[in-house]
Amino acid sequence: MSLVEERTFEADPSRIEEITAFVSAQAEASSVAARRLPHLELALEEALVNICTYAYREPPRDVTIRLLLDDRRFAVELVDEGIPFDPLEEAPPPDLSSGLEDRAVGGLGVLLIRRVTDEVHYRREGGRNILSLVLNREC
């Protein structure tokens, strides 16, 4: 995949809307189907909340957004220098057997990300967590 755009933001909840708008505009310009944009935005928001909340013990806290493209896929890489954590392997599985009233708050983010993207990957590289969210452009 080819890098289309890369931008670094402060990893703060107050920036999530700005980051999501940036990614969504690029996805739309890259011919991601309009009906898939809410899926991308949901996955991105879930991943960003986790980075903003858990990745860093202290400032400075940044997240770099890399947008990649090939002839059939659009990908968002979220890159942080926080605590090593593979959400695809280390996040506890959600409790789907309990009723809503009995279930702990949170814990559904990774499940949602997996369900609304076509692919999701994690790697640790050069002291950085890299989470890739991939959508097929034609779907």
TrEMBL record:
Pfam families: HATPase_c_2 (PF13581). InterPro entries: Anti-sigma-factor_SerPK (IPR050267), HATPase_C_sf (IPR036890), HATPase_dom (IPR003594). Keywords: ATP-binding, Kinase, Nucleotide-binding, Serine/threonine-protein kinase, Transferase. PANTHER family: ANTI-SIGMA-F FACTOR RSBW-RELATED (PTHR35526), SLR1861 PROTEIN (PTHR35526:SF6). GO terms for molecular function: ATP binding; protein serine/threonine kinase activity. This is ATP-binding protein. Residues 9-134 form the Histidine kinase/HSP90-like ATPase domain. It comes from Aminithiophilus ramosus. It comes from the Bacteria. The keyword Kinase applies.
